[in-house]
Design brief:
DNA-binding, 5-stranded mixed barrel, 5 strands, RuvA_C_sf, four-way junction helicase activity, alpha+beta, 2 domains, OB fold (Dihydrolipoamide Acetyltransferase, E2P), about 200 residues
Length: about 200
């Protein structure tokens, strides 16, 4: 098992980064909101999870150990695989997800990509008693406007992390469609690529 990876970030994509270490470049899938926080061209530490399947070895990475811990809990839920768990962590910080689960906020969980009502309810049911040691967000908000604004800010930060200027990022995000970070980011990237 690869527990952590320390190396230089040599490339950033919408859903993953490439970390170079020991003469090799590793594609590491990280939550979208973390991409903007990871410095390009600098040495970084990622806490990792390796998924081994017959057709692929996929490496997932997290800037904080508690993010990986929540990821591990999420993938124990029936119907939640690594891609869906990364999608949840792409839309919200760990502390917010913990708040949603503790407060049984199905609607906020359903805003994450790939999460329907049944899956959200299953996450609440199976994880509610397993979150000891996790901190919840002090600013627990369920208002759609507040969540949308936060998602737009996160998407804008991620775009700047990919090398776009602040004005390009803000303009693209303002015109983007979607409520969660992933949807806004995909829409914004389409607009940016069509303008170039």
């Amino acid at each position: 098992m690869i527990d952590r990876l320390i190396g230089k970030v040599v490339d950033k994509r919408p859903d993953h980064i490439v970390v170079q270490t020991g003469g090799m470049g590793y594609a590491v899938y990280v939550p979208i909101i973390a991409i903007g926080r990871i410095p390009m061209g600098e040495k970084t530490l990622l806490y990792t999870h390796l998924q081994v399947r017959d057709d692929a070895f996929t490496l997932y990475g997290f800037t904080r150990e508690k993010d990986r811990e929540l990821f591990h809990l999420l993938i124990t839920v029936s119907g939640v695989g690594p891609k869906v768990a990364i999608g949840i962590l792409s839309g919200y910080e760990t502390e917010s997800i913990v708040s949603f689960i503790r407060n049984e906020d199905v609607k906020s969980l359903m805003k994450a990509p790939g999460i329907g009502k049944k899956t959200a309810e299953r996450i609440l049911l199976e994880l509610k008693d397993k979150l000891t040691g996790f901190e919840a967000s002090e600013e627990f908000e369920t208002e759609g406007v507040a969540i949308a604004t936060s998602a737009q800010e996160e998407a804008s930060d991620a775009l700047m992390g990919l090398g776009y200027s602040a004005s390009e990022a803000k303009s693209a995000v303002a015109e983007a469609e979607g409520d969660d970070v992933e949807a806004i980011l995909k829409s914004a990237l389409k607009k940016l690529s069509s303008n170039r």
